[in-house]
Design brief:
alpha/beta; elongated; 37% helix; single chain
């Protein structure tokens, strides 16, 4: 049977560095760091939060946020249905945001929509047709990818 190893003498162990701050200041630093982490998390949540969802059917939704109301979201959905953007077969999403800078309608589109030169005139006309449903021009029409990154911004006056 092997003998058990002995613990090294305590005087040979390295000492852990002690903080140069008194305990009260360490607590303040910890609280500030925690506040920064929580604040950053909330800011990211706010940035990625699309708003409240109004499901029009199983394939179409309008998300609304800021000062936009459910009635305005419903009216936008109806206007998008009238112009053919929303139909019962195709998956489609729109976002409506109203704030102090104005009204923004975002449409989730494919890459071809923001790359083709002729597409801008199509979306400008679509914007003119749906603008009365959200409170008349001027509005901003954003063409966004599925991650809500703006790929093309069109001002409708």
């Amino acid at each position: 049977m092997r003998p058990m190893p002995q613990d090294p003498p305590q005087e040979n162990l390295p000492q852990l560095p002690r903080s140069h701050l008194p305990p009260g200041r360490r607590l303040v630093g910890l609280l500030i760091g925690l506040a920064i982490i929580i604040g950053g998390g909330l800011a990211l949540l706010w940035y990625w939060y699309p708003g409240r969802e109004l499901k029009l059917n199983k394939n179409q939704s309008v998300y609304y946020s800021g000062r936009a109301t459910p009635d305005e979201a419903r009216a936008l959905g109806e206007a998008l249905r009238k112009v053919g953007w929303f139909d019962d077969d195709r998956q489609a999403t729109a976002l409506l945001r109203k704030d102090k800078t104005g009204t923004t309608v975002s449409l989730v589109t494919s890459p071809e929509s923001w790359k083709e030169a002729q597409a801008e005139e199509f979306f400008r006309e679509l914007g003119r047709k749906i603008a009365p449903s959200v409170g008349d021009p001027p509005i901003t029409l954003d063409l966004v990818d599925p991650y809500r990154r703006v790929k093309k911004r069109i001002r409708i006056d």
